[in-house]
Amino acid sequence: MTTVRTATPSTARAINDRLALDLLLESGPLTATELRGLTGLSRPTVADLLERLQRAGLVAVVGESGEQRRGPNARLYALVADRAFLAGLDVRTTGVDLVVADLTGRTRATATVAGADEQLAERTLEALARAAREAGAERLHTVAVGAPGLFDPATGEHQNSGALSRHQTDLLTALRADPRTEVTVDNEVNLAGIAEHRLGAARDRDTFVLIWLSHGVGASVVLDGRLRRGATGGTGEIGYLPVHGSGLPSGDGGCDSGGFHSLVSSAAVCDLARAHGLPVPEPGPPASAPLGEEVVRHAAAAGGPAADAFLDAYARRIALGAASVCAVLDPGCVVLGGEIGRAGGARLASRVEREIARLVPLRTEVRAGTAGGGAVLAGAVLTAGDAVRRDLFGGA
Fold it and tell me: What is the 3 state secondary structure string of the chain?
């Protein structure tokens, strides 16, 4: 005999509250009538939930609809943006970028900490505190951090110390030392994939792979709307992928000497450009953009026989790794992200799509990333915002 369970009144209220809060987050201020129309709930139910959410400090009256008209107007309800604050951090070898945002995800303050010396943790904590004060936050509810390397999906602990310097590891430890703030840490490319999925080139896709092309190489895998991390957090470590034309990578020593990384990273781009007679700029300051980005951007914009031959050759290299991923996962869509992937734009993406079609019979669209240079930071803010709202709004 099948037992049918119905929702308790408290469960039903929690579901209704979360539905209304999500709508206010997505759509901005709404009247009670608009909420009834969007939720399908009755007038008394909407009135009760609005009163309940106002008592909880999550919703407030922010004005009236039709303020230019005569007669009574409907009240407009909105989320209380200052109810909680959050932060996102992008930790790189060149330093740290950070954003402090409110409950709605709106940026309220930013800061950059250049360099990664022994004072990195202290300087970053000071910059984060200043940004929080500028935003009007007494404390940060959640901080989400994107950093290179593998992070255990269950514990958040770093799995391969070689990807982070001691100073960066000290920073993560210092961030976690504040008992008032929840700190989550994830691979930087995973966070960039979240940004491309929700804000960028893959907004219309539930399944796709982001291939990150920068100083390093990685991937973010989203299947059926869910980011996949793997048993140890290693999903997307395609820099180690053995591909034709490269040496073999070393599981202990890294992938600098072989594997997919050695074919498509920033250093490989510069070598390939020189082989095609293209100019390669001199290295700039440590915090400047990777040279490979400048080379690819110039080639994509300039055109001409040498530039086209370079882009064709680079696309073939990218396709070797991308085709392997497509043959296993069949994502239907590959996004080229990172500084180099974005710099190549549609001219590089179309070439990679053509080369993948030559290697595997699975139809795969290739797009240039559009989440922008702050994709990791945007993904961190989205991740922190999700955590805050799970806590304050309830539900999954």
Answer: CCCCCCCCHHHHHHHHHHHHHHHHHHHCCECHHHHHHHHCCCHHHHHHHHHHHHHCCCEEEEEECCCCCCCCCCEEEEECHHHCEEEEEEEECCEEEEEEEECCCCEEEEEEEECCCCCHHHHHHHHHHHHHHHHCCCCCCEEEEEECCCECCCCCCECCHHHCCHHHHHHHHHHHCCCCCEEEEEEHHHHHHHHHHHCCCCCCCCCEEEEEECCCEEEEEEECCEEECCCCCCCCCHHHCCCCCCCCCECCCECCCCCCHHHHCHHHHHHHHHHCCCCCCCCCCCCCCCHHHHHHHHHHHHCCHHHHHHHHHHHHHHHHHHHHHHHHHCCCEEEEEHHHHHHHHHHHHHHHHHHHHHHCCCCCEEEECCCCCCHHHHHHHHHHHHHHHHHHHCCC
